[in-house]
Amino acid sequence: MHLIGLAGTNGSGKDTVGEVLQEKKDYLFVSVSDLLRDEAKRRGQPIEREVLRTISAEWRRQSGLGVLVEKAVEMYNSKTGYKGLVLASLRNPGEVDTVHEKGGVVVWVDADPKVRYQRLMSRQRSSEDDKTYEKFLAEEAEEMSHQGDSATLNSGGVKAKADIFISNNGNDIEAFKNQILIDLDKYLSS
After folding, report:
1. What is the pLDDT of residues 6-30, one digit of tens each?
2. Domains of the chain, with CATH numbers?
3. SS percent in the chain: helix, strand, coil, step 5
4. By three-state DSSP, how is residue 12 classified?
5. Per-residue pLDDT tens digits for 51-72
């Protein structure tokens, strides 16, 4: 199984990378953020970043730091016809370690904060995207630095362990999709 873990800043294009690999390379794309959103809905909790953070930390404490990767691998193993698995968004260094232990690579996707904020405001998927630019930057700074125990978010620790870096500052989505395939060609063809 080819395994690619996606990480990066909010609004950088992680889901686009996953969708391209699903459409063009026959990978199963699993959004661990969607798994957390589904769990919040199941619990009757609001779809807010703090709720998702709490659930993910709870799951990591109960089932290990790589639990979200393991859930995605279980989904992959229950399906047929895929050439690999791509999952987003890794937010804990233990998830990177689990991807690496399974022979996978981790891709860090990033873009200028103003570009990413504009993307988030234009899509407004849920109340978690409705915020000021200052709040957006504050939340990101909090997620990049480690606070709490080993089960909490630590995107800075994830970035430090990433294998491949992709920049997505442009507004041409088709150009970005083509660049993804170029940037990941070496891994995809192995």
Report:
1. 999 989 999 999 999 999 999 999 9
2. 2-185 (3.40.50.300)
3. 55, 15, 30
4. coil
5. 999 999 999 999 999 999 999 9
Amino acid at 141: A
**Burial (CB count <10 Å: 0-12, 13-18, 19+), residue 189:** exposed
The verdict on pTM exceeding 0.90 is yes
Amino acid at residue number 112: D
d(CA 50, CA 148): 14
Torsion sign across C-alpha atoms 101, 85, 20, 121: negative
In this structure, are residues 140 and 114 in contact, taking their beta carbons and an 8 Å threshold? no
- How many other β-carbons are positioned within 10 Å of the β-carbon of residue 63? 12
Q: How far apart are CA 93 and CA 125, in angstroms?
A: 27
From first CA to last CA, the distance across the chain in angstroms is 11
Q: Which of 63, 130, 127, 128 is nearest to 92 (CA)?
A: 63
What are the Cα distances from residue 46, in Å, to 5, 68, 93, 125, 175? 26, 20, 26, 13, 35
d(CA 7, CA 30): 13
3-state secondary structure 98-149: HHHHCCCEEEEEECCHHHHHHHHHHHCCCHHHCCCHHHHHHHHHHHHCCCCC
Judge contact between 85 and 32, C-beta under 8 A.
no
